[in-house]
Specification:
Elements: H1 3-8, H2 18-23, E1 40-44, H3 53-61, H4 68-86, E2 91-95, H5 114-127, E3 131-135, H6 137-144, H7 162-169, E4 177-181, E5 190-198, H8 206-214, H9 216-227
Parallel strand pairs: 1-2, 1-3, 3-5
Antiparallel strand pairs: 4-5
């Protein structure tokens, strides 16, 4: 069994995830886990409507409009697009929800964290990236709920809002490592990695895109230190 089919078989078709509730049948879209050493994992929210692996590759190579593939290419450059096109190299792109669509569309209720709970720890465990880039609220909140370092908390002990951390990053000279738990309980294992949070650079959020572009400096310097 190849790596692609192996990870897709993690889906439990009886669960109330987005794909099983909204799509019927579910159609998860995932790049195969690379055989090469992945250094940077990008986690965005969800594939576009009617997406496929080939469609995502095409949009990265020949972006149209100001959608996410175009802006990922602007932020991460040719190294990223080539890695995704070849399904190898130091970059890996995945999603909080693997099935295409829009989780904000009205429809039947579903457990919107189910997909991330099942897949993302597995992807992190298998690929062990040195840097994870979280794009948007859903994946940022999901990750922050698992991080315990003091810098992710207010002095009162309250967990920081992910957008506050995005703003803090604008003043940082470097991104520090953190320990990300890969499982729960007393026997949990963790992954030592760096994490960067970005606002989803949609066409509707010009301010978010300006902030993300301001963070390109620290994104580039972090990737350069990890890769070279």
């Amino acid at each position: 069994m190849n790596k692609k089919s192996n990870i897709l078989n993690l889906c439990d078709k009886d669960e109330n995830c987005f794909g099983m509730v909204r799509l019927k049948p579910h159609t998860p879209i995932m790049f195969p886990l690379p055989l090469t050493l992945v250094k940077v994992m990008i986690i965005s929210e969800q594939p576009l409507h009617l997406s496929s692996i080939d469609k995502l590759k095409e949009l990265l190579q020949n972006p149209k409009g100001n959608n996410l593939p175009r802006r990922l290419k602007e932020l991460l450059g040719d190294r990223f697009t080539q890695s995704i096109a070849d399904e190898t190299g130091v970059f890996y792109w995945t999603h909080f929800i693997k099935c295409p669509g829009n989780l904000r569309d009205k429809g039947e209720e579903f457990n919107y964290r189910k997909c991330a709970d099942r897949y993302i720890p597995y992807e992190l465990q298998k690929l062990r990236p040195s840097l994870v880039i979280c794009i948007g609220k859903s994946i940022s909140d999901w990750c922050l709920e698992r991080l315990t370092e003091s810098r992710f908390f207010e002095e009162t002990g309250k967990r920081k809002d992910w957008k506050d951390i995005v703003i803090e990053q604008m003043c940082m000279e470097k991104i520090d490592c953190c320990d990300f738990p890969l499982s729960a309980g007393s026997q949990s294992t963790s992954l030592r990695m760096k994490i960067i949070f970005l606002i989803h650079p949609s066409e509707r959020s010009q301010l978010g895109w300006r902030i993300d572009k301001h963070l390109k400096r620290i994104i580039d310097s972090t990737i350069d230190k990890i890769v070279y």
